[in-house]
Amino acid sequence: MDLSFTAEEEAFRTELRSYLESTLPAEWSRPGFWDSIDRNDAFNRRRQWEAEKAKAGFAGIAWPKEWGGRGGTEGMKAIYDEEMTRARAPRGANQLGLTYLAPTVAVLGSEQQKRDIIGAILRNEEIWCQGFSEPGAGSDLAAIRTSGVQDGDEYVVNGQKVWTTQAVHGDKLFALVRTEPGSQRHQGLSLMLMDMDQPGVEARPITTMSGDQEFGEVFFTDARVPIESNLGGIGNGWQTAMLLLSFERGASAFGMYTAMRQQLAGIVAAARSTYRDGRTAAEDPVLRANLAAVVTELECLRYHSFHVLSATETGRDLGFEASMTKLQWSETMQDLFEAFDEILGPNVTVRQPFDDGAEISDLSALQNQGLYSRSVTIWGGSGQVQRNVVAERVLGLPR
Ligand SMILES: Cc1cc2nc3c(=O)[nH]c(=O)nc-3n(C[C@H](O)[C@H](O)[C@H](O)COP(=O)(O)OP(=O)(O)OC[C@H]3O[C@@H](n4cnc5c(N)ncnc54)[C@H](O)[C@@H]3O)c2cc1C
How confident is the model at residue 107, as a pLDDT? Predict the structure, then answer.
């Protein structure tokens, strides 16, 4: 395992760091800033800033140049994840398009689709949503019921998706649809490419417990989609979906590690300024032990990330082993915020006023991140499902 980056990669870090320092508005890291502005305005600012960053060459870092990427190394991608987090750059606006759709189009798409879709994703001209989950189909994705019935050279789509990230702000949707009436399970599905603002498609926001509306429900009522608006061929939706989901594999956790280190620093500061029974929480031996255990987990995650990076740099496809990375970072994040909950006690649920003079000026951001951490063992395959994958596909245990 290689624990260092090359000189070329470190030069990339310097260039990116200086780009971020010169373009990220200072007010964006002011405590409470994002909560103080209108949701649509917030999304449009993130979208626009990211589009400019792509024009400056800081998008699609390890993607080939022919897709509009930078043609960099996996090490540069890891550095990119670290530096974006370090600079507190806003979350990507087009994660589902970038992570899943663009690489799938590069493999399965027609030449026209490659031209139309990939560059527009990188430049944030089209924000994509993923329409897989339904009220009765989550971990058991093959239970999909949204139907597409052929009518001339179009499919007429009816049904419902749920937990659709960016449902409200998205421009497009890649949706798994049962296009063969009466088909069962993995058969008869197609990945249809749809417009979010076309007739018959209605997005409704869902508000999460942290007050965000990052996802929603999508209802289809006789929404018409041209037959050619599919990826991978009609009836091949399951294979297309499995390829698409595989692109999260190999993702290292450098960005997650850096974010959790920042959060840990805030949590330690909170422990030092929270008094219980005549002493600070930082002096309580049980709370100290909790934090020490999390630091150990975090350092294991860091070395695991280097292990994953070394493997991908040698061209090895991690395949199902990637489930171990997701399990490791998601459970570390929950342990981190459980330690935070113990430190604040019942006050963890009480929203703190913003106070620039306080030692922890953005406690409410940590509280929001704590609420968000509950979702990380659900999306992208739940913790239990990842364990099944590791047991059956990596360790070869019987079902
Ligand atoms: C923040 C967030 C963003 C999301 N974004 C999207 C999106 O953009 N597009 C999209 O399509 N979906 C999205 N999802 C949905 C996500 O993919 C599903 O929530 C997930 O697949 C789990 O499905 P479910 O919620 O139906 O839970 P279920 O599948 O009903 O699971 C319920 C419980 O049963 C357990 N379980 C299920 N099957 C097994 C099994 N075989 N063995 C052991 N335990 C099992 C699960 O681990 C879980 O604890 C998002 C979810 C979240 C939380």
Answer: 93
DSSP 8-class letter at 64: -
**CA–CA dist 159, 221 (Å, integer):** 7
Q: Which atom of ligand 1 is nearest to the CA of 384?
A: 47
Comparing CA positions, the residue from 331, 214, 333 lying closest to residue 263 is 333
The pLDDT tens digits for 335-358 are 999 999 999 998 888 876 555 555
Summarised one tens digit per residue, pLDDT across range 25-49 is 999 988 888 888 999 999 999 999 9
Atom of ligand 1 nearest to the CA of 141: 21
Among the CATH numbers 3.40.50.1820, 1.20.140.10, 3.40.50.720, 3.30.160.20, which is that of 254-394?
1.20.140.10
Any idea where the domains of the chain sit in the sequence?
7-93, 128-235, 254-394
CATH fold of 7-93 reads: Butyryl-Coa Dehydrogenase, subunit A; domain 1 (1.10.540)
Instruction: Give distance in angstroms: CA of 139 to centre of ligand 1.
Output: 5
Q: Is the pTM of this model over 0.85?
A: yes
The token duo for 275 is 């008094």
CB 100 less than 6 A from any atom of ligand 1: no
Let me know if 83 is a catalytic residue.
no
Distance from residue 374's CA to the centre of ligand 1 (Å): 12
Cα-to-centroid distance, 180 and ligand 1 (Å): 25
